[in-house]
């Protein structure tokens, strides 16, 4: 019928007044008409539908679609619809081109300073003082002044420029590949987003982007609507429209009162069908995005529009979108608003807080050191030349003096470049990006990058039972029916036929029509369960009783259901009313047995007749039937029915009266077996210092039985299992308010929370997070699949949503999506999280050793010999190997099971432990001794000319080349030492499992050979012979032996060692909150909500606008790429970045609809 229905419509003669439809490709309605219709709500919308189309049937007819069979799958028709009404997707903003990224990388302050210095140095090197009278300028320019040399002066400047170019290209390439990766992730989430539509009379799942106007879409509890539409059939439908209107109350939708459904809103209850009337840019959400300056916001619209992809939560999107409108009136308002919008923020991730603090300290130290270096050099030169030698300043010598000053300046900048670990943001980004890519293989789809690092610190996991710990493949295994308890499913002839018939219709009608059992995918496999798994178990029971549920559903299609009370977490039951042929009604009900049995007054006996069901019988049934089932870990479901007269007409809104005096048909026990790998995964968690708690809506006995099977509770342990009611009673005071102290008495021992409501789950998570009874703040991960789990998922430090069973709402609120719904994937996430943390610590240990050594060498060398033993270009090369390559090498170490053998680090533990501090200082001492020995007595040891006190532009000396070479080789071998941070002996352990590391070390070594042998003047190197090379290598290898010596020194003996890189102190966090409303830049820096400004803060304090590493802007912004709520935000941010501390806005991590969304009214109004 579908094809016919769709094709015959084409031959209808056009009605008058429809001529304007020509350009709309023969559809009886235009895009404009539809979008003006979708702007109305409630009665106005109904009136408009009646005026223009008489009813929704006609609207479907004009859209050439059939309410029952949907569109035909005719590609030409679908294509035509896309051309006329648009596609369900909004074109993304173009990614930055490589050149733009290069330009951004050039904005780095340190690099700019180096470029300027290099250019001045270049210009001056071409200047020769007039006349041969260079003597007059003192001994400054004496030395080898032959032609070749004078001309070689330009090389240093050119070499610095070249190395700057290298750094810029590397940075830009990193950003580019990161952007690409991120878009890849986006599109992957996008493709996974599917929606159920009816085509040719069958329900199929299609990607959201393929939905067209005229499609008949099936909507159900938990969906996020992908397009605008008009309801054509609904049961008890309630929608959360807060993302569009800011109203937090759920809106009841029905054909009679308000049939308008809008894209981007959530279905909170019920089910139904809608005809799609607007997609993509023409939908309500789409229009808002176009209003708000399509430029920046388009991408975000696409992000938010396509459901789960919305990396930024929908509500925030709205809060965020509001800003651009205000900026027209004035910046201040906007700034304030942004801050307001960002109030409910997630705390900074643990790692990020520690890094911020550490980075600032290092930045300050580096700046001070470089300033002192420059001042000392200049003073020394001035005193030496003009005081001791009594020279006068001659005008023609000025350029030569300036050249010296430039040289000192370059040395100072190099000290700074080496002191600041720009590689840190890079290491963090690489480490996170690498982990996220690999976690994909472990079934973790990470939506917010920093979630994977937070997971490494997790101390508690609150897990759902169904589907996470269990397989979510439910089957009925026991049944109590007609006064008999069957331990396995009985044959149909063992039960009264009347009861069999009743049970068949009760299950077929009172289960969502979207739940069904399909044939197995492969021969001999289990049949496929589609839809709600508990309902599938009941439908399976019907099939086991050799009955057909599909036949009943064909007799009573969904449109004929008189009234449906859909399942929700408050009712814990579902009821459906049908009208019988004689006009009377019958209500079927199913739900949690202990809840439904309370509403039963009768029970069916063996003969199929109802008899009274007294309280005494109920108690007996609970003891004899329900408790034994529950203790075997079965969920018990009661199925009941009731006849209602047609006259007087029942009051359908009075639900308590309608669903009472029921007749109990049967109680079934449903088994949901524990996943085979879960007990092992839970054991690993417990060994790793993570407490697993189970939070479930199930009966307490069932929950306890499953928890014991999983290993969450062990017989003989001291633990609590309680129901939601009891939990609430214990945590509330007389006034009924929740008290933290009372929660603190409960949660440490609580292991199972049964019959819990979503609010209980949220209360528990919040209570654990806010608790102060342990010295470490707890880091809580939560798993959830239902719409009602949203608040708990948002509140948790890391929210895991189920990829298969999860609703769109849950996915939206989560940080990580488990693509296989399996608890053991969470353990993988913990492993990866700890690995990220360790990788960054390894990198820090390596990097800081180099920093300490390079800074001290450059500083003392410059002060004692007026010239840094390590030249600017050499320093840049050292910086490159240390920062970029080392971050690649150390950040890509794969995780090992050993990571799960230790307790979590905790929030307050320092980044740099005592052991690491011992390693850093120990190695620095070794390297400094070697380098100073070489610097001051090296010429005697190797019997070569001394390189000290060489004049300007003199050729590179072997002496300094040996120092440079030894320095680099020591770093290379120390990179191997840095692979272990907990004082392990075997630093080569597992080195071959990381090919990246091996290739980088070997590659660096090869380039070093080339630089030394053929680098010549630009790198200030003169070639070394084999013997000298062997000595350099020998000293480098000494690092490994020295590493063993350091490992032998027990850390606990070294009380003097301080740890570094603690998290921010609680009072600092308090200050940050107080500072929220003040607009001074300092407080803005304080908030540092965006990674970008990480380094700037410290330098700001010294009132210097040396924004040292804006590399952070890109390669690090932890929250930038990393949290990058959506790539858009970063673009939005780049726009404001220059003028305002925009990081304030982007921090919202869990804004509820309220703060910003209210203002949406005004948008709608003003638009």
From TrEMBL:
<keyword id="KW-0109">Calcium transport</keyword>
<dbReference type="InterPro" id="IPR023214">
    <property type="entry name" value="HAD_sf"/>
</dbReference>
<keyword id="KW-0813">Transport</keyword>
<dbReference type="Pfam" id="PF13246">
    <property type="entry name" value="Cation_ATPase"/>
</dbReference>
<keyword id="KW-0812">Transmembrane</keyword>
<feature type="transmembrane region" description="Helical">
    <location>
        <begin position="958"/>
        <end position="976"/>
    </location>
</feature>
<feature type="domain" description="Cation-transporting P-type ATPase N-terminal">
    <location>
        <begin position="50"/>
        <end position="126"/>
    </location>
</feature>
<keyword id="KW-0406">Ion transport</keyword>
<feature type="transmembrane region" description="Helical">
    <location>
        <begin position="920"/>
        <end position="938"/>
    </location>
</feature>
<dbReference type="GO" id="GO:0005516">
    <property type="term" value="F:calmodulin binding"/>
</dbReference>
<dbReference type="InterPro" id="IPR044492">
    <property type="entry name" value="P_typ_ATPase_HD_dom"/>
</dbReference>
<dbReference type="InterPro" id="IPR023298">
    <property type="entry name" value="ATPase_P-typ_TM_dom_sf"/>
</dbReference>
<keyword id="KW-0067">ATP-binding</keyword>
<dbReference type="GO" id="GO:0030165">
    <property type="term" value="F:PDZ domain binding"/>
</dbReference>
<dbReference type="InterPro" id="IPR006068">
    <property type="entry name" value="ATPase_P-typ_cation-transptr_C"/>
</dbReference>
<dbReference type="InterPro" id="IPR059000">
    <property type="entry name" value="ATPase_P-type_domA"/>
</dbReference>
<dbReference type="Pfam" id="PF08282">
    <property type="entry name" value="Hydrolase_3"/>
</dbReference>
<dbReference type="GO" id="GO:0098978">
    <property type="term" value="C:glutamatergic synapse"/>
</dbReference>
<comment type="function">
    <text>Catalyzes the hydrolysis of ATP coupled with the transport of calcium.</text>
</comment>
<dbReference type="InterPro" id="IPR018303">
    <property type="entry name" value="ATPase_P-typ_P_site"/>
</dbReference>
<feature type="transmembrane region" description="Helical">
    <location>
        <begin position="996"/>
        <end position="1016"/>
    </location>
</feature>
<feature type="region of interest" description="Disordered">
    <location>
        <begin position="1"/>
        <end position="24"/>
    </location>
</feature>
<dbReference type="Pfam" id="PF00689">
    <property type="entry name" value="Cation_ATPase_C"/>
</dbReference>
<dbReference type="InterPro" id="IPR001757">
    <property type="entry name" value="P_typ_ATPase"/>
</dbReference>
<keyword id="KW-1133">Transmembrane helix</keyword>
<comment type="similarity">
    <text>Belongs to the cation transport ATPase (P-type) (TC 3.A.3) family. Type IIB subfamily.</text>
</comment>
<keyword id="KW-1278">Translocase</keyword>
<feature type="transmembrane region" description="Helical">
    <location>
        <begin position="408"/>
        <end position="434"/>
    </location>
</feature>
<dbReference type="Pfam" id="PF12424">
    <property type="entry name" value="ATP_Ca_trans_C"/>
</dbReference>
<keyword id="KW-0547">Nucleotide-binding</keyword>
<dbReference type="GO" id="GO:0046872">
    <property type="term" value="F:metal ion binding"/>
</dbReference>
<keyword id="KW-0460">Magnesium</keyword>
<dbReference type="GO" id="GO:0051480">
    <property type="term" value="P:regulation of cytosolic calcium ion concentration"/>
</dbReference>
<dbReference type="InterPro" id="IPR036412">
    <property type="entry name" value="HAD-like_sf"/>
</dbReference>
<dbReference type="GO" id="GO:0016887">
    <property type="term" value="F:ATP hydrolysis activity"/>
</dbReference>
<feature type="transmembrane region" description="Helical">
    <location>
        <begin position="367"/>
        <end position="388"/>
    </location>
</feature>
<keyword id="KW-0175">Coiled coil</keyword>
<feature type="compositionally biased region" description="Basic and acidic residues">
    <location>
        <begin position="11"/>
        <end position="24"/>
    </location>
</feature>
<dbReference type="Pfam" id="PF00122">
    <property type="entry name" value="E1-E2_ATPase"/>
</dbReference>
<keyword id="KW-0472">Membrane</keyword>
<dbReference type="GO" id="GO:0005524">
    <property type="term" value="F:ATP binding"/>
</dbReference>
<protein>
    <recommendedName>
        <fullName>Calcium-transporting ATPase</fullName>
        <ecNumber>7.2.2.10</ecNumber>
    </recommendedName>
</protein>
């Amino acid at each position: 019928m579908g094809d016919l229905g769709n094709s015959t419509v084409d031959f209808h003669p056009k009605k008058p007044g429809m001529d304007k439809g020509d350009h709309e490709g023969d559809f009886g309605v235009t895009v404009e008409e539809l979008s003006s219709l979708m702007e109305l709500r409630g009665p106005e919308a109904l009136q408009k539908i009646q005026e223009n189309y008489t009813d929704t049937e006609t609207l479907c007819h004009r859209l050439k679609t059939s309410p029952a069979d949907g569109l035909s799958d005719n590609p030409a028709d679908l294509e035509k619809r896309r051309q006329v009404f648009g596609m369900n997707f909004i074109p993304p903003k173009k990614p930055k081109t490589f050149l733009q990224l290069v330009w951004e990388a050039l904005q780095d302050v340190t690099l700019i300073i180096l470029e300027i210095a290099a250019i001045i140095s270049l210009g001056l090197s071409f200047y020769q003082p007039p006349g041969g009278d260079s003597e007059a300028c003192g001994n400054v320019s004496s030395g080898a002044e032959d032609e070749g040399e004078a001309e070689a002066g330009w090389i240093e400047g050119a070499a610095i420029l070249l190395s700057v170019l290298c750094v810029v290209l590397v940075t830009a390439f990193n950003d580019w590949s990161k952007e690409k990766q991120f878009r890849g992730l986006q599109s992957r989430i996008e493709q996974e987003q599917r929606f159920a539509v009816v085509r040719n009379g069958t329900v199929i799942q299609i990607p959201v982007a393929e939905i067209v106007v005229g499609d008949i879409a099936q909507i159900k509890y938990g969906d996020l609507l992908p397009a605008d539409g008009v309801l054509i059939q609904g049961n008890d439908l309630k929608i959360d429209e807060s993302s569009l209107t800011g109203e937090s109350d759920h809106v009841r939708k029905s054909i009679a009162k308000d049939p308008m459904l809008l894209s981007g809103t959530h279905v909170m209850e019920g089910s139904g069908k809608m005809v799609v009337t607007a997609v993509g840019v023409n939908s309500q959400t789409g229009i808002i995005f176009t209003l708000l300056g399509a430029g920046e916001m388009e991408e975000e619209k696409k992000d938010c529009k396509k459901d789960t992809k919305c990396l930024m939560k929908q509500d925030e999107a709205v809060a965020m979108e509001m800003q651009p409108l205000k900026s027209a009136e004035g910046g201040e308002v906007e700034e304030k608003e942004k801050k307001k919008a960002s109030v409910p923020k997630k705390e900074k991730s643990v790692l990020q807080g520690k890094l911020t603090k550490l980075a600032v300290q290092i930045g300050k130290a580096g700046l001070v050191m470089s300033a002192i270096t420059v001042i000392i050099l200049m003073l020394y030169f001035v005193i030496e030349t003009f005081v001791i030698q009594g020279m006068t300043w001659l005008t023609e010598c000025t350029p030569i003096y300036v050249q010296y000053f430039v040289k000192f300046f370059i040395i100072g900048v190099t000290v700074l470049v080496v002191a600041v670990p720009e590689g840190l943001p890079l290491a963090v980004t690489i480490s996170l990006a690498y982990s996220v890519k690999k976690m994909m293989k472990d079934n973790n789809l990470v939506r917010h990058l920093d979630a994977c690092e937070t997971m490494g610190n997790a101390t508690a996991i609150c897990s759902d039972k169904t589907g996470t710990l269990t397989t979510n493949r439910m089957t009925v295994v026991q049944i109590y029916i007609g006064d008999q308890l069957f331990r396995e499913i009985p044959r149909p002839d063992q039960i009264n036929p009347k009861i069999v018939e009743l049970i068949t219709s009760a299950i077929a009608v009172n289960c969502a029509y979207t739940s069904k059992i399909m044939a197995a995918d492969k021969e001999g496999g289990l049949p496929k369960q589609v839809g709600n798994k508990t309902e599938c178990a009941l439908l399976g029971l019907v099939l086991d009783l050799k009955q057909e549920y599909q036949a009943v559903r064909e007799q009573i299609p969904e449109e004929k259901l008189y009234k449906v009370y859909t399942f929700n977490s408050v009712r814990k039951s579902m009821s459906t009313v049908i009208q019988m042929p004689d006009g009377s009604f019958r209500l079927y009900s199913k739900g949690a047995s202990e809840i439904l049995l309370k509403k039963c007054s009768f029970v069916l006996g063996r003969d199929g007749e109802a008899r009274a069901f007294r309280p005494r019988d109920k108690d007996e049934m609970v003891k004899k039937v329900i408790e034994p089932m529950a203790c075997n870990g079965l969920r018990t479901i009661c199925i009941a029915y009731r006849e209602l007269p047609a006259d007087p007409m029942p009051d359908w809104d009075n639900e308590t009266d309608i669903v009472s005096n029921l007749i109990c048909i049967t109680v079934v026990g449903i088994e949901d077996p524990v996943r085979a790998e879960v007990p092992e995964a839970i054991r690993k968690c417990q060994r790793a210092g993570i407490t697993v708690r189970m939070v479930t809506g199930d009966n307490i006995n069932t929950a306890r039985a499953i928890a014991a099977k999983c290993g969450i509770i062990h017989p003989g342990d001291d633990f609590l299992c309680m129901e939601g009611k009891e939990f609430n009673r214990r945590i509330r005071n007389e006034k009924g308010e929740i008290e933290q102290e009372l929660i603190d008495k409960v949660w440490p021992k609580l292991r199972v929370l049964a019959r819990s409501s979503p609010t209980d789950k949220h209360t528990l998570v919040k209570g654990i997070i806010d608790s102060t009874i342990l010295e470490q703040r707890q880091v809580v991960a939560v798993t959830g699949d239902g719409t009602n789990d949203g608040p708990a998922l948002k509140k948790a430090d890391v929210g895991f949503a189920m990829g298969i069973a999860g609703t769109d709402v849950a996915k939206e609120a989560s940080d990580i999506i488990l693509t296989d719904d399996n608890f053991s994937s969470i353990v993988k996430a913990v492993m990866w999280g700890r690995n990220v943390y360790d990788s960054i610590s390894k990198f820090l240990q390596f990097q800081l050793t180099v920093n300490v050594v390079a800074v001290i060498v450059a500083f003392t060398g410059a002060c004692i010999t007026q010239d840094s033993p390590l030249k600017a270009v050499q320093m840049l090369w050292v910086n490159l190997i240390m920062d970029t390559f080392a971050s690649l090498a150390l950040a890509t170490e794969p995780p090992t099971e050993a990571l799960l053998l230790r307790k979590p680090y905790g929030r307050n533990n320092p980044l740099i432990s005592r052991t690491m501090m011992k390693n850093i200082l120990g190695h620095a001492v070794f390297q400094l001794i070697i380098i100073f020995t070489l610097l001051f007595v090296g010429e005697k040891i190797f019997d070569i000319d001394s390189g000290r006190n060489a004049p300007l532009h003199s050729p590179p000396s072997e002496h300094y080349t040996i120092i440079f070479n030894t320095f680099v080789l020591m770093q290379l071998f120390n990179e191997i030492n840095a692979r272990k941070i907990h004082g392990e002996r075997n630093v080569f352990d597992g080195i071959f499992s990381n090919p990246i590391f091996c290739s980088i070390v070997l590659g660096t070594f090869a380039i070093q050979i080339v630089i030394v042998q053929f680098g010549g003047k630009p790198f200030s190197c003169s070639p070394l012979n084999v013997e000298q090379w062997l000595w350099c290598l020998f000293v480098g290898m000494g690092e490994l032996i020295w590493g063993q010596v350091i490992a032998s020194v027990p850390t606990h003996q070294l009380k003097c060692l301080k740890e570094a890189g603690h998290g921010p102190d609680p009072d600092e966090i308090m200050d940050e909150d107080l500072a929220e409303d003040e607009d001074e830049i300092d407080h803005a820096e304080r908030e540092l909500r965006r990674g970008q400004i990480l380094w700037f803060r410290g330098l700001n304090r010294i009132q210097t606008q040396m924004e040292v590493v804006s590399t952070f802007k890109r390669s690090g912004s932890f929250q930038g790429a990393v949290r990058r709520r959506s790539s858009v935000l970063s673009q939005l941010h780049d726009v404001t970045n220059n003028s305002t501390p925009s990081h304030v806005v982007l921090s919202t991590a869990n804004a509820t609809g309220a703060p910003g969304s209210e203002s949406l009214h005004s948008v709608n109004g003003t638009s």
